[in-house]
Design brief:
The complex is a heterodimer of chains A (363) and B (328). Chain A is 75% helix and 0% strand. Chain A contains 15 helices and no strands. Chain A has helices at residues 19-36, 38-55, 59-64, 70-80, 86-98, 112-147, 152-166, 169-183, 195-202, 211-217, 221-258, 261-268, 273-311, 316-325, 329-357. The longest helix of chain A has 39 residues, at 273-311. Chain B contains 12 helices and 2 strands, in the order H-H-E-E-H-H-H-H-H-H-H-H-H-H. By secondary structure, chain B is mostly helical. A two-stranded antiparallel ribbon of chain B has the order 1-2. In chain B, helix 2 packs across helix 11, helix 6 packs across helix 8 and helix 9 (226-246) crosses helix 10. Chain B has one domain (28-309): MetI-like fold. In chain B, 47% of the residues are buried. Classes of the chains: A mainly alpha (363), B mainly alpha (328). Chains A and B meet through helix 2, helix 7, helix 8, helix 13 and helix 14 of A and helix 4, helix 5, helix 9, helix 10 and helix 11 of B.
């Protein structure tokens, strides 16, 4: 999205003489231009984050400030090279990123890339679960709201959508924990699995880190249920709140398409109201939904940070909060850079999907 | 704009105030939403203004003449919403939280409005390399998770925690940085559109300086849509503040009361079934954001004639007055 959505200097019709090749060539070209546009976005974010983090001082003073004598501190700073001009440090950092090295964390001395790989999978799992919940809730309810526009069901759903926007994810999490975890005792309230299960799953050969996938692969049904149990509340908290956004999107777009002539034509031919809503109106409404969903991914990642902290879900967001408290800014910077890349790449994928569905986008 | 053709002289100045005119325009469900929103927002503002008068205790008070307050006490007659793990009164803290919230919202929105509009005007009108850089930067920031950016900013500004003023400013500036691109984009797009209008060209021909064109001619016309973004951003500012506080990046509990921070503390209480420490600050956030959103949404709908709904009575009156006008 954003800077990249209108593929400005796109292949003119003259550039591709053969009509047969036009389609494939145009799409490939769009794909490549769009892919190249990721680079400036990520580059700018890395630069902004780097300089912002350095304005406050070097990471060593921030992390170990009160605990070392000034001499020791100065020595550590010198060893790590933080006393050199900032531009040199910046270019060195850029070079490091290119070779896939994000430095080592201050607080627990691990390679940042390793931290990202370990905890990224957990965040991915949470995000997938949440998007599934959001889609399952948002799309059908959005269609219902559009169908009953300005009548009783629509009013209720609109209020619910506003409510889902107004509720911070950690408050929703707190309520879910209280009701389903503490009062009813149905579901576990924190973590990704019991510790026994967690040991079993991390002990697997080449684990993916996505627990339900690992549990399925090893054919361990007990572990699978355990993991699912733990996943329900976080997925609900984050998913329901994202679902509210989807609901509004589907509603607005489906209202637009429900009023079209071809829907009326379908109705006159005796197509059922259900089919009209779910097929005729829904399909074309899908394109703007997919595009906006890309922007939602950024919001979802922000929400994931809060959700993970709420449910002690040991993903990137949970670690980010931990590193923030420990003032470990090397680790923070690494996580932020990774998230920036993820956001840019998802936007790329979303644009490509939109182009696949709607050929007009490509030109 | 379109109101110029209406018999404006019949309306008193009171009716032409934004919120009141919207209220008169509305009906049915839309009026219900607007009224509910106004009531909730009003409650929020009143609470913020009179928190010191309403609250029985101070926000960081854990003892009085009769001794230390009980810890994690359930709601009773003295502490109507119970007490926290540190012995603070939840009711008082929730009330004072409104004060912190309103400070941060106002500061953040005013700052981002000012900077965003200024940058948007300059960038849109003058164009050139400044415009290119500003657009690319704004787009990159816009695409990034706003909470993460706010976290980075609050590290930069206050290294995490600080006093009331410092904390409010840190939170507000963090939020401002996130919001500037939004105002910037809206204003810039409007300016680009308006630049081609005849009135701008005539001003240029007469010899008005670029600054005069920007501030006398463009500013008024480019900022019509801003009140709506204003309410939406107020809610987003509040949610970002709460998120920062929840992650422990807000204002220290002894220097001010902040809902997000209180919810963070309440998380461990919830595990042992203590519901009152989290429920009330959480509800405060939800109700405030809902109130502001309802106002913003209804005003948005009412400004758009296609979304405006009339009651039958009113529709009849309008058609009748139209006929009377036609007969004359």
């Amino acid at each position: 999205m954003t800077i990249t959505s209108p593929p400005g200097k796109e292949a003119s019709p003259l550039a591709t003489p053969k009509p047969a090749k036009q389609k494939g060539g145009g799409f490939l070209r769009y794909l490549i231009t769009r892919f190249l546009l990721i680079i400036p976005t990520v580059f700018i974010l890395i630069t902004v984050v780097f300089f912002l983090m350095r304005v406050t001082g070097d990471p060593i003073t921030a992390a170990l400030g009160g605990r070392l004598t000034p001499d020791q501190l100065a020595q550590r700073i010198h060893e790590a090279g933080y006393d050199r001009p900032i531009l040199i440090q910046y270019f060195e950092y850029l070079g490091q990123i290119f070779t896939g090295d994000l430095g080592r964390t201050m607080s627990d001395n691990r390679a940042v890339t390793e931290v990202l790989a370990t905890y990224g999978a957990a965040t991915l799992e949470l995000a997938i679960n949440a998007v599934l919940v959001a889609l399952l809730v948002g799309i059908p309810l959005g269609l219902v709201a559009a169908k009953f526009r300005d009548r009783y069901p629509d009013a209720v759903l609109r209020i619910l959508a506003i409510l889902s926007y107004a509720t911070p994810v950690f408050f929703a999490g707190l309520l879910l924990k209280l009701v389903f975890g503490v009062w009813l005792g149905w579901l576990p309230i924190s973590g990704r699995a019991d510790w026994q299960t967690e040991l079993e799953l991390t002990g697997l050969q080449s684990p993916s880190g996505i627990y339900w996938l690992d549990a399925l692969r090893s054919g361990n049904s007990a572990a699978f249920w355990n993991v699912t149990e733990h996943a329900i509340l976080p997925a609900l908290a984050l998913g329901l709140l994202t679902g509210g956004v989807f609901l509004r999107l589907v509603r607005t777009n489906a209202i637009g398409t429900l009023g079209r002539e071809y829907v009326e034509a379908g109705r006159s031919r005796g197509v059922s109201e259900f089919r009209l809503t779910t097929k005729h109106a829904y399909r074309p409404a899908l394109i703007p939904i997919i595009t906006v969903m890309g922007l939602q991914i950024a919001m979802l990642l922000g929400g994931a940070v809060l959700t993970e902290t709420t449910f002690e879900w040991s993903g990137l967001g949970f670690k980010l909060a931990e590193y923030l408290t420990a003032r470990d800014f090397v680790a923070v910077q690494g996580i932020v850079v990774l998230l920036a890349i993820i956001v840019a790449v998802t936007n790329f994928i979303v644009d490509v999907l939109a182009a696949l569905i709607d050929p007009r986008v490509r030109y | 704009m379109s109101t110029a053709t209406l018999p404006a002289s019949n309306k008193s100045w009171l009716d032409r105030l934004p919120v009141i005119s919207h209220l008169r325009m509305s009906s049915g469900l839309q009026r219900g939403m607007l009224v509910a929103g106004l009531a909730l927002s009003g409650l929020f503002i009143v609470t913020a203004l009179f928190a010191p008068l309403i609250a029985p205790f101070d926000f960081a008070q854990s003892s009085d003449a009769s001794g230390d307050f009980p810890r994690q006490a359930a709601p009773d007659s003295k502490f109507i919403w119970g007490t926290t793990a540190t012995g603070y009164d939840v009711f008082s803290r929730t009330l004072f939280g409104a004060q912190t919230a309103i400070w941060v919202i106002l500061t953040a929105v005013v700052m981002s409005l000012f900077l965003g509009v200024l940058l948007g005007l300059i960038s849109g009108y003058l164009g050139g390399w400044f415009d290119r850089i500003a657009v690319v930067l704004a787009d990159a920031i816009y695409a990034f998770p706003s909470l993460l950016l706010a976290i980075v900013m609050s590290i930069v500004i206050s290294q995490g925690q600080s006093s009331l003023f410092g904390g409010v400013m840190a939170a507000a500036i963090s939020i401002t940085v996130v919001f500037i691109p939004q105002y910037f984009r809206v204003v810039r797009a409007e300016v680009l559109r308006l630049k081609a209008e005849p009135f701008v060209e005539s001003a240029q021909v007469i010899g008005a300086s670029p600054w005069r064109v920007m501030f006398a001619h463009l500013l008024r016309n480019a900022t019509r849509t801003l009140p709506l973004i204003f309410t939406l951003n107020a809610t987003e500012a509040l949610l970002t503040l709460a998120g920062l506080g929840f992650l422990g990046f807000g204002i220290e509990p002894t220097s001010a009361s902040e809902w997000g921070y209180d919810l963070n503390r309440a998380m461990s209480d919830a595990t042992s079934g203590i519901w009152w420490t989290g429920l009330f600050p959480g509800l405060a956030i939800v109700l405030t954001v809902m109130g502001l959103t309802l106002v913003g949404e209804s005003m948005n709908d009412l400004n758009d004639p296609r979304l405006r709904r009339f009651s039958r009575k009113k529709a009849k009156r309008i058609t009748q007055s139209g006929q009377v006008g036609a007969n004359k």
